[in-house]
Amino acid sequence: MRKVKVPTLETERLTLRMWEKKDAAQLYDYAKDPDVGPNAGWKPHSSPGESRLIIDTLFRVNETWAIVEKETGIVIGSIGLEPDKYRPGVASREMGYSLAKSRWGRGYMTEAAARLIQYAFETLKLEILMIRTSETNIRSQRVIEKSGFTYEGTLRYAYRMYNGQIREVRCYSMLRDEYFKKGASC
């Protein structure tokens, strides 16, 4: 598998960097929590080995950053850009993220999202950035709204989760013009 090299991005409290194999234990520490993965549609990790496999087969081959808390040096989440399967032929990506439950409510994900949005529009020159979340993931909806995305609608019966359950997803997007009108550099 080809590894995708992502640039290191900085914020006031966070470093967004490429995942390393040695991060498996820290990924497992937060990804085993049943309140983290299922909100994003994936099952809680069952072992550090499974976390290592996710790093090798998903994170390091896609545009996915480890979110590192500068104060502690601990990996506290992930954030990434995937191809937007709903807009072929358009310079568009889909943003996705997860965060350790112990860091919820501190503004970390909004801070990381702002930096990635800046990268998406100013460096990658995207025309549109989209994000989806479940109807029940209120925390993620708040991050999305604080980040300046516009609600587009809900896709019914749209996503099969790891456990076979099919759920609705709320779809949001931000156009390049909208990003620059609100002052860029979130």
Any descriptors?
186 residues; alpha+beta; Aminopeptidase; eight-stranded mixed beta sheet; 30% helix
Question: Could you explain the architecture of this structure?
Answer:
With about 190 residues, this protein is an alpha+beta fold. It has one domain (about 10-180): Gcn5-related N-acetyltransferase (GNAT) (Aminopeptidase, 3-Layer(aba) Sandwich), CATH 3.40.630. The chain contains six helices and eight strands. Strands 1-2-3-4-5-6-8-7 form an eight-stranded mixed β-sheet, sandwiched between helices. Strand 5 (about 90-100), helix 4 (about 110-125) and strand 6 form a beta-alpha-beta unit. Helix 1 crosses helix 3. The longest helix has 16 residues, at about 110-125. It is globular. The chain starts with 8 loop residues before the first strand and ends in a 5-residue tail after the last helix.
SSE blueprint:
Elements (H helix, E strand, L loop, with lengths): L8 E2 L3 E5 L5 H8 L5 H4 L7 H12 L3 E7 L5 E9 L8 E8 L8 H16 L4 E7 L3 H9 L3 E11 L5 E10 H6 L5
Parallel strand pairs: 5-6
Antiparallel strand pairs: 1-2, 2-3, 3-4, 4-5, 6-8, 7-8
Helix pairs in contact: 1-3
Assign the structural class, choosing from mainly alpha, mainly beta, alpha/beta, alpha+beta, or little secondary structure.
alpha+beta
Can you tell me the CATH superfamily?
Gcn5-related N-acetyltransferase (GNAT)
Q: How large is the radius of gyration?
A: 16 Å
Can you count the beta strands? 8
Task: Count the domains.
Answer: 1
- Major beta sheet summary: 8 strands, mixed
Helix content: 25-40%
* Named CATH topology: Aminopeptidase
Our count of helices gives: 6
Record the strand order, biggest sheet.
1-2-3-4-5-6-8-7
Q: Please identify, by name, the CATH architecture.
A: 3-Layer(aba) Sandwich
